[in-house]
Amino acid sequence: MAIKLVLSDIDGTLLPRGNAEVDRCVVEAFHALLDAGLAVGPASGRALPAILPAFAGDEACVATALATNGMQVYTAGKLVHEEYLDREGLVQLAAAVREVPRAGMICFKGAEVFLVEGERDVLAPIFPSYAAHIMSVDAVPDFPVVKANVFVDAGVRGTQALMERLEAVMPRLGLNTPMAGFMECGAGGVQQGDGHRHYLP
């Protein structure tokens, strides 16, 4: 069977922790695959506006993308599929996070980041780029939310323990933890790799 599509994780895979951009050789490899007639792109928990800078603004490298853990699917530079997080589930999640010391929750609208619960100073060492541009809000926003995250001042074990505790009280949403202190929120049962089905004929 001929390969037609190549998708790769970014953080910790193509992009070493602490780096802002992938190596130039990664961009060159993406272009070599594109020139060979393959579709190639990133698969990430990030939304597309946060993926593009990792490729130094090279739009060809992200024209095909599984963004926001498969909640947004792009092909040929166009959004072809999008799912939203359950608002009631997000409200329940915010209430649960509120009871956890040095924890918080953020939601996104495009590239805009909203602090629903917690403190910017706790988020800053965990995800500096989000903390740098965050806006505080009093509640879960009314707009449809595609991306939300939980953060906590904890190591791997503490993050995992909090994730399990939160999942037990909010079955409408799913969580995963890509790194210590940070959790990605998704629709219940939706996994990052599920988005590939939208590329199938």
TrEMBL record:
What's any one GO cellular component for it?
cytosol
Give the source's domain of life in one word.
Answer: Bacteria
**GO MF annotations for this entry?**
magnesium ion binding; phosphatase activity
Chain segments annotated as transmembrane: none
The record ties this protein, via InterPro entries, to: HAD-like_sf (IPR036412), HAD_sf (IPR023214)
Pfam annotation, one family: Hydrolase_3
Gene3D superfamilies documented for this protein: 3.30.1240.10, HAD superfamily/HAD-like
Tell me which PANTHER family the record gives: HAD SUPERFAMILY HYDROLASE-LIKE, TYPE 3, PHOSPHOSERINE PHOSPHATASE
The molecule here is called: HAD family phosphatase
Organism per entry:
Collinsella acetigenes
Read off the lineage from the record.
Bacteria, Bacillati, Actinomycetota, Coriobacteriia, Coriobacteriales
